[in-house]
Amino acid sequence: MTAIDLNTEIFENAPIGLLYSEDRVVRRGNRRFAAIFGYGPDELDGQSLAMLYPSLDDFDHTGQHWIRELGAHGIYSDERIMRRKSGELFWCRVRGQALDSEQPLARAVWSFADLSSERPVLALSRRERQVGMLLVEGLTAKEIARRLDISPRTVHVHKNRLMTRFGVRNSLELVRCLASVPH
Questions:
Q1: Can you tell me the distance from the alpha carbon of 110 to that of 9, in angstroms, rounded to the nearest whole number?
Q2: Which of 51, 76, 105, 128 gives the lowest tally of CB atoms within 10 Å of its CB?
Q3: pLDDT, tens digit, for every residue of 20-37?
């Protein structure tokens, strides 16, 4: 087997979803990437990544955040809710690396891991999901408010709703619930 064949075999048979994108358009994804999202092997080629997000608003906000993070660090990692072809929402671990930090979304390599068996999706609003993810990252209400361009009071309202939905009594328990992904 030649090196080129071996590289293709490794890419296509990786146990996680792998993707190469240009300007947030799928250029090449492996079989696992397509399967995670419920698509056939080449069905996503040439498609916007927007179709994998719960909403266009989520897609836009994530893109703005990626530009900042990839531009500053060249790499990005988070856990977020994504959307399958069927419309089903699920938790996904996303990691990415820009190939050019000057134009972070122009060319990037991404990995996707389906967390749905370990972390069921609750019916949360987009803003509750955003606040929840940022709480898990350890941001304060003021930092979350700045990042989302909302007031700290609004952050507290969303945090209190999340605490009620998860049936927890304090912030520490909430973060544990939000971050309850087995290692």
A1: 18
A2: 51
A3: 999 999 999 999 999 999
CA-CA-CA-CA dihedral for 163, 167, 169, 171, to nearest 10 = -40
Task: Name the β-bridge partners of 81.
Answer: 91
Q: Whole-angstrom distance between the N-terminal and C-terminal Cα of the chain?
A: 35
**Domain ranges in the chain?**
3-114, 126-178
Q: How many CB atoms lie within 10 A of CB 171?
A: 13
Q: Is 2 helix (H, G, I), strand (E, B) or coil?
A: coil
Q: Is the pLDDT of residue 182 over 60?
A: no
The architecture (CATH level 2) of 3-114 comes to: 2-Layer Sandwich (3.30)
Instruction: Please answer whether residues 45 and 129 qualify as being in contact, where contact means their C-beta atoms are separated by less than 8 angstroms.
Output: no
Radius of gyration of the CA atoms of the chain, in A: 17
What is the edge-to-edge ordering of all strands in the sheet holding 25-29? 25-29, 17-22, 108-114, 89-98, 75-83
Tell me the two tokens of residue 3. 């090196």
pTM for this one?
Answer: 0.68
Residues 6+ apart with CB under 8 A from 157: none
Q: Is 22 helix (H, G, I), strand (E, B) or coil?
A: strand
